[in-house]
């Protein structure tokens, strides 16, 4: 995947601020097709923003920091 949509990345990270969730629940919230969702999931795991364990996707410490920064930026802009 050569291009990444910041909107999709933000949707994934901001949804996970609510807490860990299963792939299916997160996938439904992204409004992507499943293969594309899996590409984003892999990309974010490679960047150290997400982790998966016990059937749940969760933010890493770095992912939490990025998600909070995105949330703050959106709050200031909108």
UniProtKB/TrEMBL annotation:
<dbReference type="Pfam" id="PF14947">
    <property type="entry name" value="HTH_45"/>
</dbReference>
<protein>
    <recommendedName>
        <fullName>ArnR1-like winged helix-turn-helix domain-containing protein</fullName>
    </recommendedName>
</protein>
<dbReference type="InterPro" id="IPR038723">
    <property type="entry name" value="ArnR1-like_HTH"/>
</dbReference>
<dbReference type="InterPro" id="IPR036390">
    <property type="entry name" value="WH_DNA-bd_sf"/>
</dbReference>
<dbReference type="InterPro" id="IPR036388">
    <property type="entry name" value="WH-like_DNA-bd_sf"/>
</dbReference>
<feature type="domain" description="ArnR1-like winged helix-turn-helix">
    <location>
        <begin position="6"/>
        <end position="75"/>
    </location>
</feature>
């Amino acid at each position: 995947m050569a291009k990444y949509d910041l909107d999709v990345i933000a949707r994934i990270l901001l949804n996970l601020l609510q807490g860990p969730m299963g792939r299916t629940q997160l996938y439904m919230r992204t409004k992507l097709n499943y293969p594309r969702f899996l590409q984003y999931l892999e990309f974010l795991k490679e960047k150290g923003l997400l982790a998966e364990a016990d059937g749940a996707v969760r933010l890493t410490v770095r992912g939490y920091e990025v998600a909070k920064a995105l949330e703050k930026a959106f709050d200031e802009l909108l």
